[in-house]
Specification:
about 425 residues; Growth Hormone, Chain: A; 19 helices
Length: about 425
């Protein structure tokens, strides 16, 4: 018999009712497809640079544009989630980013591609904002970290799907068509709307809060998260997510190109190296989810940020063989990704229900927007100092900010969500 003190990784799933399980799988698949859509560009960036003779800095700026747009989209979606509901906002976001992935496949020059990817980012940010709140409010407090963190692990699944798709398309098609085929496959998430429409319901606590506010005529303002009583939380949480995402994007955006340009690996040859990083990410997400519930969100952030700093330096600065680098990819992916498992639950627990969508949407996506600068900075600095140095400098800087912010924020493990 499963009890409330079940500390196993899958303990949350054993006690879920059918509605909760449907919500879990809907969000899991949505986040996986979201990750696949985003990671397609870093995988084909080298091909695009060569085909259109694009400067590395400009190529990195396309990632920055996508992430900046996603920061706006996430804030808007968070506000919409508080006004029209979590599920409806999730549906709109998925349809949006899926459509612009398909549009990316038909870009005729790099400017068109940058615009399409920026528009994709707007929906990409919205999907996380709505989905994370939806999961956070559906799962009980003692299991929230593991459930939301397990959904976060779907990002590695989506990344793996993108890498597999790259290996297949570049084996079957010429480079100038293969990257377009990959973007076209990014429309697949739109099919998830059928499942969401049929099986996923609005969280009870969110529905009750909106009904209460409607009776009182109290409509939350999108700027209410900046009021004095909650401003410190908003600022620190935003800086925390900036460090978390800046570090991740600084290294993960450029690893495929780094392996090809400095390690002289082919597209197909680099797939095995990426597989180790992706596998490490997946295991790291799951382990991080367990740590977040067992030992707390802050301990997860502090320990993983410190380890990530050492792993990034080892991966980029040590004079090691390609074989050693391949094996080192697993712990790199583990520590440079696993802390994300605690972010969704942590942000859900920091804000009151009436402002949860706006607060969580803003903080995570402000961090994404500021973190978006790191891929472009790595791209520009790599032209003078090389990828190894550029990645190390900006990734370590970001993880340092993440660590300091985690030390300044409170622990939220076990916090109950109330109708306020």
């Amino acid at each position: 018999m499963t009890t409330a003190c079940d500390h196993s990784l899958t303990g949350f799933y054993k006690v879920m009712n059918p509605k909760e399980k449907k919500t879990f799988w809907g969000c899991f698949v949505g986040w996986a497809l979201d990750g696949m859509d985003f990671m397609i560009y870093p995988l084909v960036i080298g091909t695009i640079i060569a085909m259109w003779q694009v400067d590395r800095g400009l190529a990195g700026l396309a990632v920055t544009g996508t992430l900046l747009a996603s920061s706006i989209g996430g804030w808007v979606a968070g506000y919409m989630a508080d006004r029209i509901g979590r599920v409806r906002t999730l549906q709109i976001s998925i349809l949006w980013f899926s459509s612009f992935s398909l549009i990316s496949a038909f870009a005729q020059d790099f400017n068109q591609l940058m615009l399409a990817r920026a528009m994709l980012g707007f929906g990409f940010g919205g999907e996380w904002a709505a989905g994370a709140v939806l999961m956070g409010e559906t799962i009980r407090a003692e299991y929230r970290g593991r459930a939301v963190g397990s959904v976060q692990s779907a990002w590695a699944v989506g990344w793996g799907a993108a890498a597999l798709l790259q290996a297949i398309t570049f084996s079957l098609l010429p480079d100038e068509l293969a990257w377009r085929a990959m973007f076209a496959m990014g429309f697949l998430p739109a099919l998830l709307l059928i499942y969401i429409r049929r099986h996923i319901e609005e969280p009870v606590v969110a529905q009750a809060a909106r009904e209460k506010l409607a009776l009182l005529g109290d409509v939350p303002s999108i700027l209410e998260i900046f009021q004095p009583a909650i401003l410190k939380t908003t600022v620190l949480a935003s800086v925390l997510t900036m460090g978390a995402q800046g570090g991740y994007y600084a290294i993960m955006t450029w690893i495929p190109t780094y392996l090809k340009s400095e390690r002289k690996l082919t597209v197909i040859g680099s797939t095995g190296y990426l597989a180790f990083v992706i596998a490490g990410s997946f295991v790291g997400f799951l382990f991080g989810a367990w740590v977040a519930d067992r030992y707390g969100r802050r301990k997860l952030f502090i320990s993983f940020s410190i380890c990530a700093i050492f792993l990034v330096l080892a991966y980029t600065q040590l004079q090691i063989t390609n074989e050693m680098m391949m094996w080192l990819g697993f712990p790199l992916g583990f520590f440079a990704s696993g802390y994300f498992s605690g972010l969704g639950a942590f942000l859900t627990e920091l804000f009151p229900t009436r402002l949860r969508g706006s607060g969580q949407g803003f903080c995570y996506n402000f961090g994404r927007g500021m973190g978006a600068l790191f891929p472009a900075l790595v791209g520009y600095f790599s032209a003078q100092y090389g990828f190894s140095t550029a990645i190390a400098v900006f990734a370590v800087m970001a993880y340092g900010v993440f660590l300091i912010s985690a030390l300044l924020l409170p622990e939220t493990r076990g916090r109950e969500l109330l109708v306020d």
